[in-house]
Amino acid sequence: MAVALTSVVSLAACAKDSGGTGGGGTNSAQGSGCTLATPPADAAATTSTTTSDKKVDASALKVGLAYDIGGRGDASFNDAAAAGLDKAKSDLGVKEIKETTAAPNEADSAKEARLRQLAQDGYNPIITVGFAYAPALGKVAKEFPNTKFAIVDSAVDGAANVTPLTFTEEQGSFLVGVIAAYKSKSCHVGFVGGVKVPLIQKFQAGFDLGAKTAAKDIKIEEQYITPAGDFTGFQAPDKGKLKAEGELAAGADVIYQAAGNSGKGIFDAVKAKSGAWAIGVDSDQYKQPGVADDKDIILSSMMKRVDVAVFDFLRAVAGNDLSALPKVFDLAAGGVDYSTSGGKVDDIKKVVDAYKAQIVSGAIKVPTVPAGS
Question: Where in the cell is it found (predicted)?
Fold first, then answer.
């Protein structure tokens, strides 16, 4: 995959601290310890959103939302869903809502019971947050064919009343991989995933390729908090901190985390290491109250716009037009992106946006599986 990219993106090395070429500005490479590739020429990435200006009244909806483990307040994945729900309350007039949360490593039967109770109580639509709900939803959706369901990060085959809300996490992760390469003084970065499952490996795959496209000599540490099947990795800040400390001790000075509530521990580890940076995930974590103590070391966040997907789904249900939703929330649809809060990547924004335009145009294809997996 990296070989294929060379036909699109020139990897001709430029001198360290040269400022790069092709729109990064004279300071775009300043401070990087890597030999940076020549970035693509300046280009504007054409993106769109699914939300129209047509007024929709959703006050009659009775919305159920089932969070993944960690629930509202995780400063990451679930809080992104919560933000979409809150926007639907303020902008669409949604009034009646019930929110529930999964427990770590709970049985599918517990998820079935949670969703079945929501449906029996008349909640419609019902949104499930996280791929772990897929088996349970596959059963419950058949029992309630007149209830509209949505699932974030998965799909349910053969269920016409279930709308998948999926994302190209790898595309947004590519962009923060570029940021990591440009901001690393040691040309050594790290990735910490919560649980080693295919979804989180998409984050790793994009990050790896973005970093290596920007700097082919970069070194990348890769760790997962727990193996597949043990979902406590998304809610173990202490274990996340240990993984991050190991990567920092190995020489990494920029760490990207895709670990849910465990990200707080990763941020704490980075903050304790002089000169190190962290990259957040899902929400714009620089703005999240739950990690406010660490905002000074957050370079950027890979924003997975679950908030947009949740809001757009509720709007589409209220307007009786689910066909308006994109089949996947990708970079072109504004479903993923990178944040600039705090101004720490302002000096390289043109470079990152040039790579972004290459992905949107299709010139850069980002894999969903890490190399060697």
Answer: Cell membrane
